[in-house]
Design a protein that fits this description.
Blueprint: H1 13-35, H2 39-47, H3 49-59, H4 67-76
């Protein structure tokens, strides 16, 4: 990806500003798109399905004490997205 500082030539200040704005919007768009994918799916992409399952299973306590821990447990069991 070409960054805003790599815009070359004798473009005007307005043109450079427009290039920067477009680059910033594209960056925000990529970040928002990444956040639409579940954490489990992102982990599976990076670590693989088996390692993700093991990781999620080891993060939980014997009995979940918070809603977040309950969610992690269910995700490790494959019941949550």
């Amino acid at each position: 990806m070409v960054g805003p500082s790599s815009v070359q030539g004798s473009s005007s200040s307005g043109s450079r500003g427009s290039d920067r704005l477009l680059w910033d919007c594209a960056t925000v768009g990529r970040v928002l798109e990444m956040n639409r994918v579940s954490a489990r799916a992102r982990l599976e992409t990076e670590l693989g399905r088996d390692l993700t399952r093991v990781l999620l299973l080891t993060l939980r306590e014997a009995e979940p004490s918070t809603p977040h821990e309950e969610q992690l447990w269910r995700a490790a069991q494959g019941d949550a997205a």
